[in-house]
Amino acid sequence: MSDDDRTPRNHPAPAWARLGLGALSGLLAGGAALAAAELAAVAVRPQAGPVVAVGGAAIDRTPAAVKDWAIRSFGTDDKLVLQLGILAVLTLFALALGVLALRHRRTGAAGVLVFGVVGAATALGRPDSTGVADALPSVLGAAAGALLLYFLAGRLPAPGRDAAEGQSEDWDRRRFVIAATAAAAASAGAGVLGRALSGASGRDAVASRDGITLPRPASGAPAVPRRARVRVDGVSSFFTPNSDFYRVDTALVVPKVDATTWKLRVHGKGVTREKTLTFDDLLRRELIERDITLTCVSNEVGGPYVGNARWIGVRLADLLQECGVRPPSAGGPADQLVARSTDGMTIGSPVEDVMDGRDAMLVVGMNGRPLPFEHGFPVRMLVPGLYGYVSACKWIKDIELTTFDDYDSYWVKRDWAREAPIKTQSRIDTPKPFGRPEAGTVMVAGVAWAQHRGIDKVEIRVDDGPWREATLAAEDSRDTWRQWSYAWKATKGGHTLTVRATDRTGEVQTEKRTRTVPDGASGWHSVVVTVD
Fold first, then answer.
1. Cα distance between residue 347 and residue 420, in whole Å
2. Confidence grade of residue 130 (pLDDT, cut at 50, 70, 90)
3. Residue 496 C-beta-side C-alpha neighbours within 13 Å
4. Dihedral, 237, 242, 248, 253 alpha carbons, nearest 10
5. Which of 257, 263, 325, 480 supports an S-S bond with 320, CB 3.0-4.6 Å?
6. Pair type for strands 380-382 and 361-366
């Protein structure tokens, strides 16, 4: 047997195999680029990673109506859906670049670099960008991906390639498999390491939260009246547990802020004495504890984005007065308070509302515990009676006094209203839509809210019948929702149940149905049931 007979030969690969291997090379290069970028982001900051940066930019540029649809359709999973969508698009481009690199090796690699440039530019353009270092993850990731694609493409069969690149129909399968396997393993390892280090980078913040013991409030919340809760299965609990409280924001990565290094600056028009406070400074101040219901402006009629909690914090009006701030009604030059978050969010609140005597506060505690990270730890803002997008800045770090004429906050730039008091609303919690209760007495129950005005009456209508007054649970405060119930004598067949509320000013909840943009949804909530 000759030496030639003992030497394995590599035969030309069919066209479909060449395309598949090229696509695989692009996919491996794209995975390596993302893994390297996310690993580099650990050394910079998680928000500088390309997926987070591009995702944030996508959120910023998405029309309000589309954002509204995403929240309605996906709820609190909207950010996960966005990230998965970005990864899907990147995957398609990676596959295409891999196929391109079969014939144009340098061009395919250069395509990966282009995505790095886009990612870097996006990271630098984010509102929370900390400087040129934010570009490094995308640049380093793209470089790693481009080099890998160039290397793998050089191990593949590509008929017709420029002879200068030195490739023939014959190719070494073994070398390609080894290189591809090593690349996949290295990418997976980098991804695992990146996640581990990312978790470790937030340990100081976690430790700072774990070490907090909230002082006893100087002004505690009054005891909740015994009859503030209706005893009907299916009604929302009076206090919403922290784990169940709705979360609607634009942060793809929840900021992990160390309370020991956190600071808040108060400055701007009408501020005669600027202040910079630490977290300990806040805890040493007089704390108040209040039960307050929050509502998101994205909450559709009958929607889930409303919750009630017991909050602990510092009166915001007292702090502003110490800084020399006066409301417009007292001659103050600023009519807007702009709160800035560590994630770049800006939220504008009317100074008059913040200082009119309501329990506007800088919150440090929620339901007896330090704020969860998802809800703004270490400090967030809260103003009863205003939708969250004009009052409830999470991860707050800066307060500037200015005017509505001089500055438009994040959501106002996106066609939402500058001022947005919460509308009078009510919701049927039970029976559920398309439920099948049995004939006889059926308890209809739910919640109603009109923060800072209070609920005076709730009425129920069955089909097109007359409005019947429901039984209201006792009121905790005018800043919290009220539970209600109604004993319905249900007869067999299909029925529509409708609810409406009247607030303490005498305003009846309007029947006119509007969407959430620009200042909150309105209309009556109805459910259709079939009585067996």
1. 12
2. confident
3. 8
4. -160
5. 325
6. antiparallel
